[in-house]
Design a protein that fits this description.
The complex is a heterodimer of chains A (about 850) and B (about 350). Chain A has about 850 residues and is of the alpha+beta class. Chain A is built from 28 helices and ten strands. In chain A, a hairpin with a 3-residue loop joins strand 7 and strand 8. In chain A, helix 18 packs parallel to helix 25. Helices cover about 65% and strands about 0% of the residues of chain B. Chain B has about 350 residues and is mainly α. The radius of gyration of chain B is 21 Å and the shape is globular. Classes of the chains: A alpha+beta (about 850), B mainly alpha (about 350). At the A-B interface, helix 2, helix 6 and helix 7 of A face helix 4 and helix 8 of B.
């Protein structure tokens, strides 16, 4: 197995597959998910490829399945998850599947069609029923129709003395009417057009029909009174245009009753038929629900195989494929192909042949569920070039650690850890759920990062002695506030009572009873006494700043050192001499020395006596070092060890020399090399040497691998023929890969590189101070939250204090989680990310590669299922 | 239009429309499309473009009308998205784009009714961009006055229709006159609307609308030869917002044959070249195609400037042209009539 330090060695392989065995071979490879196929028909149109018809048939099957799935969900059935993943079906099964799907789709469609016709019939009957019932009301004298009567009678000037029926009356005065049903939302437009066409000479009433089934649009019954035949044609046209259905209204009372009776009877019959039909449909859809997931997977796999086979170059009886395979997977791959060819009973065994190439292979880092997220962080910045040093293994520790420095609070760390543990413990369950929530998925994907971040935060929190901004006095402070003299007899001396601030002097040269510190320091982390001191911030700032610098410089130095692994691996001695060494010297001479001074100052200077006041100010010393000034005043700027002046001058000179060292020699050497090789085949530049090792490997393994024990002479012959072809075809590609960089570009490049490194060292070191700044901010925020919110409850006396505690604790807890854990956590995460991407990786990492994307069923099937299940019926 | 504040209301939509624009098929896409042998090939290729899966749920075999419907559906959904997210004055501007489709629909319905077609058979043929509430009631009307009073008075097209009320009955000739009068009023109104918006919008849109107006004037003139339309009536139909106004239009009004129209175009640099290359011989491009090409060029030019509404108009028109192209190619593919398959008008 490959390590995470470098990506795995990849091999470009050429597969010769018999056409009939190709399907099984590819599907086996798809199950394994180890090969990335190259498109050998890039210049061919999508629809001219060999298996385009099969792909199209799969498309059609997918469409049918989508229809069935949609139909199924529409009727409230849920698909049964497949208990085990089905195998890729053989191509000959395709016809069966197609027939099955077609039959099902047609059945469903037929049932739906019949159902729909019956439904329209049913609805029409309901409409008719409503017309009969409601129109009756229009014509019955009563309150509702008073205005109808008014209008009709006042127009004609006859008296409104309760006529037997308005229909009779209307007839008598030459009024016509039509009744019908219209979709309710069309009524306003309908009325307006009626009014305009008839110039106001119609009378319209409408009554909503009570909703009966949810699918139908709400409708209303209307009745229009009008005069004259000309108007009638217009009105009929308008009704037609507004998609209103007209129903004749029998004039005789008896006729109406008969009609109503028959309508009700027919409705009952229809109800029964519809019920039967629905049951039948449910039976069909139940079989669909049981199988649809399996079918979807099958079709998706089949389609993926055919799509992949479209990438192969067809010859008269075989297919040629080219793919990248990790050399660790070659054996598995060969085995799979062999078993596939046995399965399909092909006479000629498949041949796997290694192909030498100068093309850059893809980058493949084998990850597990733990390392995946960390590799993701690195890949998000840029995928490593092939076999380049991969920063991911170091990121696993350094990333959570830098995060924790900024997030140092053991209480908060504990909460984060518990959250991450909950995710990790339930990961199987959560994974099966396939949540759609993007935010949750982000957290879930990074659960192991969060776990480590939480654990490291607990650790740094203990070092800072911060738990929800409070300190824990576990071992007993190493400081004692023992001001009482024996004369006081155990009572507090009077001067101390009035004194608000007492300074604790860490002087060890006192007699035992007045000595204020123990001889041992606090065993772990920061002494809790600092929590109550007023110069706590000053103390922790100084400590955290220095720690940030020391850690930052160490990480950058480590980054520079990692560079040498790249230079030696890719055989670029010039980069070691002209880049690596001066860079290392430059960084150590300036910032390495600064770290040395930080640590020296911690060790060499006591808190008391003469030296305490004259401890060197590191910033001033560093500035003076560059200005070559060694003043005698004030005493904090004076040299603090013997050979300081000599050492510092030497270091500055070395650092200064490093700048031209980085800048000049490399372009000169490249120039001389090119001049020496001013011959036609002068491809020797950096790019060429980059690919050299890959070349070497490829040539080592440059012979066809026979997959069977019985050697078949034809096959070998075939291989050789193709070899020649491959060399011919490979040449232009090779020339393309080794582009010659212009000399002026080389110079400019080197200038930029040098300036970037030198300035970068300064700015990056300063950038690491964000560790201190965020840590300070986090500590202060949590302290403020405690003091402003929760402390109020604790400091309140009496019974009210107990009650107020509950809401205040809630507020404190919510703000702690919302602000301190989530927001602060995100910002610390962001800064840790930046420190890795910019400050650390810029020292050695190029990230110009491309990812290995193997042809794997697992990913394809998952994507397909997600897509299918997400298309909910609207 | 102030470019400083344009993005407050229009920035998002302009971004969207520029994104849509980059999905317009390129020359290479067309080269691939014309090589298709069946409509399924066409579908396969369109899948790899911005159209994506728009035909995925259609059962094979495909028909050209299905493709046409789906193309139109996509354009309409994009337009509706823009319209729903727009605020004044952009929303009015987008409504103006809609009016031309409404005019087409009205004319289609009147003609259909005249030929005794049933309304339910005509409605699906209407362009969905130009559908409006009272549309179905059009067949009630038998005279222009009725049409106006019953139907159009509630639509935004009412002011354009005033000039047509005087016509007495609806026959083929009058319908054409109504169509052109409506168009004329519409173009002039749109032109002045864009001018009022001012700034880059006016600059870009007036150029396009002026060409549209002139194209109509040319086409009306050419088509009127040999009909009973009098010269006076004809002159009334010319939109007066193009470059031909006023001299060119008065010359056109006097023209009696194609050659004279050509003479008029001679005086205008932009149009001379269009007439020069056009011909009716096989292999030549028709004048109509020439006009389309010029329109595409103008619309593409609208994208050269930022912070204006012209891009919305231009996008809709370009997309429409693209739909025409795809339908043309599909027709050629479906009828196995490959000789003329290359007569589409490439956009980029």
């Amino acid at each position: 197995m490959g390590s995470l330090f470098r990506s795995e060695q990849m091999q470009l392989c050429r597969l010769f597959l018999q056409t009939e065995a190709a399907f099984n071979g590819v599907s086996k490879l798809g199950e394994l998910g180890v090969a990335q196929f190259k498109d050998l028909n890039a210049d061919m149109n999508a629809f001219k490829r060999k298996f385009v018809n099969e792909v199209r048939r799969c498309d059609e099957m997918e469409r049918r399945l989508r229809v069935l799935y949609k139909e199924m969900t529409k009727h409230g059935l849920t698909a049964v998850e497949a208990s085990h993943e089905p195998e890729t079906p053989q191509p000959r099964e395709m016809v069966d599947l197609e027939a099955k799907f077609e039959k099902l789709e047609n059945e469903v469609r037929e049932v739906n069609g019949n159902h729909d016709t019956l439904m329209t019939n049913y609805r029409q009957l309901i409409d008719l029923k409503s017309v009969l019932e409601i129109t009756e009301r229009f014509f019955k004298p009563g309150e509702q129709n008073a205005n109808v009567l008014d209008v009709l009678t006042s127009d004609e000037g006859t008296s409104a003395a309760a006529p037997p029926g308005i229909d009779v009356l209307a007839h008598a005065i030459g009024l016509n009417f039509v009744t019908g049903v219209i979709i309710r939302k069309r009524i306003p437009g309908f009325e307006r057009v009626l009014w305009r066409v008839s110039r106001g000479n119609t009378f319209v009433r409408h009554v909503p029909i009570a909703q009966q089934d949810a699918d139908a649009e709400p409708k209303s019954v209307f009745i229009i009174f009008f005069q004259g035949n000309r108007l009638k044609t217009s009105i009929l046209k308008i009704c037609d245009a507004s998609q209103a259905t007209l129903y004749t209204y029998p004039e005789q009372e008896g006729e109406r009753a008969d009609m109503l009776k028959s309508v009700v009877a027919r409705l009952e019959d229809l109800d029964k038929v519809l019920d039967e039909m629905r049951k039948h449909r449910e039976r069909i859809l139940l079989t669909v629900a049981e199988n649809v997931m399996r079918w979807m997977v099958k079709v998706a796999k089949m389609k993926a195989v055919f799509t992949t086979m479209n990438l192969f170059r067809p010859t008269h009886d075989s297919l040629i494929a080219e793919c990248w395979i990790s050399i660790f997977d070659l054996d598995r791959c060969q085995q799979a192909l062999r078993s596939a060819s046995e399965m399909s009973g092909s006479a000629v065994p498949p041949v796997v042949e290694k192909v030498p190439t100068t093309e850059a292979p893809p980058t493949y880092n084998r990850v597990n569920k733990f390392t995946r997220a960390f590799q993701g962080i690195v890949d998000a910045y840029g995928v490593a070039a092939y076999r380049e040093v991969n920063p991911a293994p170091f990121t696993i520790i350094s990333f959570p650690f830098l995060f924790a420095i900024m997030f140092g609070d053991s209480g908060h760390g504990l909460l984060v850890t518990l959250f991450a543990i909950a995710l990790v413990v339930n990961e199987r369950k959560l994974m099966a759920k396939r949540s759609d929530n993007e935010i949750f998925n982000t957290f879930f994907g990074g659960r192991y990062i969060i776990l480590l971040m939480g654990l490291f935060s607990v650790y740094t929190g203990l070092i800072y002695n911060d738990t929800f901004s409070k300190s824990m006095n576990i071992f007993g402070s190493a400081w004692r506030a023992n001001f009482a003299t024996p004369a006081d007899n155990g009572s507090i001396p009077g001067w101390l009572v009035d004194n608000k601030y007492v300074q604790l002097n860490p002087d060890t040269n006192q007699t035992a009873h007045v000595m204020l510190i123990k001889h041992e320091p606090y065993p772990f982390g920061v002494d809790p006494v600092w929590m109550v001191s007023i110069n706590k911030i000053l103390f922790s700032n100084s400590f955290k700043m220095k720690v940030s610098i020391v850690l930052g410089v160490s990480q950058m130095l480590f980054g520079v050192i990692l560079g040498i692994f790249n230079h030696t691996y890719f055989r670029r001695p010039i980069n070691i001499i002209c880049e690596f060494i001066p860079q290392l010297l430059f960084l150590t001479c300036i910032f390495g020395y600064l770290c040395f001074m930080i640590i020296y100052k911690w060790i060499a200077f006591e808190g008391v006596g003469e030296s305490a006041h004259c401890a060197p100010s590191l910033l001033i010393v560093l500035i003076n070092m560059f200005m070559l000034k060694y003043p005698t005043e004030p005493c904090s700027a004076v040299a603090f060890y013997g050979a300081q002046q000599g050492v510092q001058t030497f270091l500055v000179l070395v650092a200064l020399v490093c700048v031209p060292w980085m800048l000049i020699p490399k372009p000169v050497v490249i120039y001389l090399q090119r001049k020496k090789q001013q011959r036609p085949s002068s491809y020797h530049n950096e790019a060429y040497s980059d690919t050299e090792p890959a070349n070497g490997h490829a040539i080592d393994g440059h012979e066809g691998i026979q997959l069977t024990n019985s050697k078949q002479p034809e096959a070998v012959h075939d291989v050789e023929a193709h070899d020649v072809e491959a060399h011919a075809g490979g040449a232009p590609a090779a020339a393309h890969g080794e582009h010659e960089e212009d000399m002026s570009d080389v110079v400019v490049h080197q200038c930029i590189h040098t300036i970037e490194f030198c300035l970068g060292c300064v700015s990056h070191t300063a950038s690491y101070l964000r560790l201190w700044a965020l840590s300070l901010a986090h500590g202060q925020l949590s302290e403020v939250l405690w003091n402003m919110v929760f402390k109020m409850a604790l400091s309140m006396n009496g019974i009210a204090g107990a009650f107020i505690m509950v809401p205040l604790f809630a507020a404190w807890a919510v703000l702690t989680v919302g602000v301190l854990l989530v927001m602060e956590g995100l910002s610390a995460f962001l800064h840790a990310l930046r420190l890795h991407w910019v400050e650390f990786q810029s020292k050695f990492y190029v990230g110009s590669g491309y990812l290995f994307q193997p042809f794997a069923f697992a990913a394809i099937v998952r994507e397909r299922l997600d897509e299918a299940t997400r298309t909910k019926p609207e | 239009m102030d470019s400083l504040s344009f993005n407050i209301n229009g920035g998002y939509l302009e971004g969207i429309v520029r994104g849509f624009k980059s999905g317009i098929l390129k020359r290479t896409d067309y080269l691939n499309l014309v090589q298709c042998e069946t409509l399924d090939d066409l579908k396969l290729h369109l899948q790899s473009t911005d159209y994506g899966n728009f035909l995925a749920n259609e059962p094979s075999p495909l028909s050209v009308s299905v493709i046409d419907d789906k193309l139109r559906e996509k354009l309409v959904s994009e337009f509706e998205y823009l319209r729903n997210h727009s605020v004044e004055p952009l929303s009015t501007f987008l409504d103006y784009i809609r009016y031309s489709y409404m005019i087409d629909n009205i004319v289609l319905l009147i003609t259909g009714t005249l030929h005794q077609r049933h309304i339910s058979e005509l409605i699906p043929k209407c362009h969905p961009l130009g559908s409006f509430e009272q549309m179905e009631a059009i067949h009630v009307a038998s005279t222009p006055a009725e049409l106006y009073n019953a139907v159009l008075v509630d639509t935004p097209l009412a002011p354009y229709f005033i000039d047509c009320i005087s016509e007495h009955d609806l026959d083929e000739m009058n319908i054409e006159i109504i169509r052109n009068t409506l168009y004329k009023a519409y173009l002039e109104d749109f032109h002045s609307f864009c001018k009022n918006i001012g700034g880059t919008t006016a600059e870009a849109m007036c150029e396009i609308l002026a060409f549209e107006a002139d194209r109509r004037a040319f086409i009306i003139t050419i088509n009127s030869f040999g009909t009973e339309l009098s010269k006076d009536d004809r002159a009334k139909l010319y939109p007066r917002c193009g470059k031909l106004f006023p001299d060119g239009l008065s010359q056109l009004a006097r023209a009696d044959e194609y050659e004279q129209v050509r003479q008029v175009a001679e005086n205008y640099g932009g149009y001379r070249t269009l007439f020069e290359g056009a011909g009716t011989n096989p292999g030549d491009k028709t004048l109509e195609d020439k006009f389309f090409e010029h329109e595409v060029k103008l619309n593409v030019n609208a994208f050269m400037q930022q912070f204006h509404f012209g891009v919305f108009y231009a996008y809709i028109k370009l997309k429409e042209q693209e739909c025409r192209n795809i339908v043309w190619i599909s027709e050629c593919v479906a009828q196995r009539h490959r000789a003329k398959i290359d007569s589409y008008i490439p956009i980029f």
